[in-house]
Amino acid sequence: MTSTTVSPRRWKRPPLLIQDPTLRLVIYGGFAVYLVLAVASIEVNWTRIFEGLERGVRFIQGFLVPDFLTRARDIQQGIIESLTMTLTSTVAGIILSVPIGIGAARNLAPAPVHAICRSIVALSRSFQEIIVAILCVAMFGFGPLAGFITLSFATIGFLAKLLAEAIEDIDEGQAEAIRSTGAGWWQIVNYGIQPQVMPRLIGLSLYRLDINFRESAVIGIVGAGGIGATLNTAMDRYEYDTAGAVLIIIILVVMATEYASGHVRKWVQ
Amino acid sequence: MFRVENLSKRYKTGDHALKNVSFSIDAGQVVGLIGPSGAGKSTLIRCVNRLVDPTEGSVFLNGRPIARSGSELRRARRRIGMIFQDYALVERLTVMENVLSGRLGYVSFWRSFARRFPQADVEKAFALLDRVSLSQHADKRADALSGGQRQRVGIARALEQDPELLLIDEPTASLDPKTSRQIMRLIVEICRERGLPAIINIHDVALARMFVDRIIGLRAGEIVFDGTPDQLDHAALTAIYGEEDWAVIHNENAEEIETTPHVVETDHAVAGMA
Question: Alpha-carbon distance A149 to A4, whole Å?
Fold first, then answer.
């Protein structure tokens, strides 16, 4: 038996990342110093900020009294163009993403196919929508075609990657059971995998629909058509009340898709 | 007849899961495969239909070797029904789709994609669902069923293949004791009806003794026991699992099979020895 004079055994949580205390101090300390220097290096021009405040206030005032009517036709045309662009690019994106996503799943595709599909995904993900949009506008001219192609391309990077991850995360037991019946590759995909990833694919597609609408507003600014173009024109003309109206419409559409997709996702579970 | 010859499996991690395992099973014989966790039971039955590729050795089913790959392997797989520990039903498909998936090796992709299986397959599926008393649940989703019901769907799926051999991996590990017995009874009855040979991986030694014709004990990838349930005495259990007081298993077992007097006697004798 242990005697009562023995001091209680002490316990401290072992350090999680860096074992060596000196190294830990150097790394954390170095990071803190860098952060301070980096913040200090930002130049702040207070007079410019003061001038800009006035413009900001006008913008907010315009936002508070939005003008839907003066440019009603432009707004209507812009919103229809954006919605069309969003829907078509999402559908095209899904159609392209499904085979690429299946090919990018390590547990399904042979190594060379996996490598090719992964590189397509990586290529799509490494370019931000605006950069792709600028390129597409240069190639296909101003207008919604450039926007459609940009958004379809961006959808591949998003959807194919997440679909591949969903496929890699499936319950292998279910697919193994289908394989053990003598099913062919396509039958394994159709019976063993598709039912498991379908709800996630639908959820992600709806989420992407939402993102594509918001992106359509942004890429419109660089000339790819849609509501973004309308917004850009309004800003150029200093019509902040019309710009406010456009922003409110964008917010409403995003909220509506968000609400609808929440319901659909619950329903497909 | 089913025969395994010199089957070996070494995993890439260096684990020598199976070492030169050979045995054969006659038609209609139900074999219980017992052994500690990691003894290679699961690897062994997966090597039979090549869900796991054996490093060496071959498997023969009714005189024909099981092919290594390609469409020949798929044709061999459809002759071997498999039942899994956690049921391995496709949870979001209906009970009927799960049972019909047993025909995937026989129908074309487009037919299975459109769920237009031949009438004979559908009738067989209904008959099997009747046999496992689940026909009223045919259009329910598999994840809406209880554990015992799911395992019965798993059995129906395996039988829908018209198998010549059943591989059964821990069929009762996720079930309560009563349901476990019902499932084991159903499996054994079906094997008797059809003269089907079966290999059942099982942890519950008492349950194995109650139902199977023959027991193979596996330890560290080698067969260390092969005999009838009666022959599985203290020494055999020690050889398979290591030193332990096995009397409890014997006593429990003795109570369970009191209806067959001679078995009880031998069991008491063994228990006495222990």
Answer: 77
At residue B34, the 3 state secondary structure works out as strand
Tell me which residue in A182, A184, A192 faces B90 most closely, judged by beta carbons: A192
Model-level pTM? Answer: 0.81
Q: A196: which chain B residues are within 8 Å (Cβ-Cβ)?
A: 90-92
Query: Could you say which of 1.10.3720.10, 1.10.3470.10, 3.30.1360.120, 3.40.47.10 is the CATH number of the domain covering A56-268?
Result: 1.10.3720.10
Chain B residue numbers with beta carbons less than 8 Å from the beta carbon of A173 are: 84, 86, 88
Closest CA to A232 of A158, A151, A152, A137: A137
Question: CB–CB of B89 and A198 under 8 A?
Answer: no
pLDDT in tens, B86-104: 899 999 999 999 999 999 9
In this complex, which of A174, A176, A186 lies closest to B109 when CB atoms are compared? A186
Q: Which residue of A has its CA nearest to B89?
A: A174
Per the listing, tokens 């079966």 go with B198
- Cα–Cα distance, A164 to A174 (Å, whole number): 17
Are B84 and A178 an interchain contact pair (Cβ–Cβ within 8 Å)?
A: no
Q: Is A192 on the interface with B (CB under 8 A)?
A: yes
How many alpha carbons fall within 13 Å on the CB side of residue B232?
Answer: 32
Q: What is the pLDDT of residues A15-39, one digit of tens each?
A: 788 888 889 899 999 999 999 999 9
Cβ–Cβ pairs < 8 A, chains A and B: 82
Q: Which of B152, B184, B169 is nearest to B85 (CA)?
A: B169
Q: Taking CA atoms, what residue in A is nearest to B84?
A: A177
Non-local CB neighbours of A68 within 8 Å, separated by 6+ positions: A75, A245
